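User: Please fill in residues for this 253-position structure.
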C-alpha cells in the first residue's frame, strides 16, 4: 500500500546545457578501408561533425556529435562531451554511458577524443583529468582491444582490477593527453575543398557522358556498316548461286 503521507521525490533538475543544439558543422571524409570479416565492407563515406560549446565562471562544455546521412540523431551514439570544472580544476569526458561510435573501426573514436583534448589543452592544460569506469558490455574481444588501444594512443591509462575485472581509464593531467589522430582514416573537409570536390565530380560526370555519347554514336555507325556488309554478302551469295546454276544448266545442255 502507498503511504498517503509520503511525498513524491521530485526529479533532479536538468542541467541548462543538456539540450543545446549544434552551432558549428564540418564535413568529415572517412577513407575507404579493406573489408572486415566481422564488420563487413568499409567504403568511402562522408559524415557531419556538429559541435557546440558553452562557458561560465564555474564550468565549460564542448559537445561533439557525428551525424550520418539518412539516419536520425541519437543521444547515445556518436556523442562526446568534455566538461571542465573551473572550481576543482578538473576535466571530465562523457557521456557516462560511454563513447559508442557508428560506423565502428573507422577512426572516429580517436578523432573525437583528439578534438576534445585539443580544445582543452588550449585553455586548461594544467587541469587534472577525472577518470572513470569503462562499460563492460563490449560486443567482442576485438572491440575491447580496439577500445583500449584507442584510449592508450590518446594518452589515457587503462587499469583492470584483478578481483572484479572492471576496467577504468584515467590520466594525470590534460597536458599528458595526445591531440592527434589518424588523418589517413578521417579527414576534415573545408567548405572550399568540398566545393572543389563537387566541381571535379561534376566535370568527371560530364566527361563520362561525352565518352558514353561517343561510344553510342560509334556503335550506331558500326551497326549501319554491319547491315550494309550483311546485305552485300547476301547479294554476293545470291549472285554466286545464280552463276553456279547457270553453269550447271549450260553443262547439261
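Assistant: Residues filled in for all 253 positions:
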Amino acid at each position: 500500500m502507498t503511504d498517503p503521507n509520503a511525498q513524491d521525490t521530485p526529479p533532479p533538475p536538468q542541467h541548462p546545457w543538456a539540450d543545446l543544439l549544434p552551432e558549428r558543422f564540418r564535413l568529415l571524409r572517412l577513407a575507404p578501408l579493406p573489408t572486415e570479416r566481422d564488420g563487413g565492407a568499409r567504403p568511402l563515406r562522408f559524415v557531419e561533425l556538429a559541435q557546440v560549446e558553452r562557458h561560465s565562471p564555474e564550468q565549460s562544455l564542448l559537445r561533439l556529435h557525428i551525424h550520418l546521412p539518412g539516419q536520425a540523431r541519437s543521444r547515445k551514439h556518436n556523442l562526446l562531451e568534455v566538461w571542465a570544472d573551473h572550481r576543482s580544476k578538473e576535466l571530465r569526458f562523457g557521456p557516462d554511458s560511454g563513447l559508442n561510435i557508428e560506423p565502428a573501426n573507422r577512426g572516429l573514436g580517436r578523432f573525437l577524443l583528439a578534438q576534445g583534448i585539443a580544445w582543452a589543452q588550449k585553455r586548461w592544460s594544467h587541469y587534472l583529468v577525472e577518470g572513470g569506469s569503462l562499460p563492460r558490455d563490449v560486443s567482442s574481444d576485438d572491440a575491447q582491444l580496439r577500445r583500449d588501444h584507442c584510449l592508450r594512443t590518446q594518452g589515457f591509462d587503462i587499469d583492470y582490477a584483478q578481483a572484479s575485472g572492471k576496467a577504468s581509464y584515467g590520466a594525470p593531467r590534460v597536458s599528458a593527453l595526445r591531440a592527434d589522430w589518424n588523418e589517413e582514416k578521417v579527414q576534415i573537409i573545408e567548405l572550399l575543398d568540398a566545393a572543389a570536390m563537387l566541381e571535379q565530380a561534376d566535370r568527371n560526370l560530364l566527361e563520362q557522358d561525352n565518352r558514353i555519347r561517343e561510344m553510342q554514336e560509334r556503335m550506331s555507325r558500326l551497326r549501319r556498316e554491319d547491315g550494309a556488309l550483311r546485305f552485300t554478302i547476301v547479294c554476293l551469295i545470291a549472285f554466286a548461286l545464280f552463276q553456279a546454276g547457270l553453269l550447271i544448266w549450260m553443262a547439261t545442255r
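For context: The chain is about 35% helix and 25% strand.
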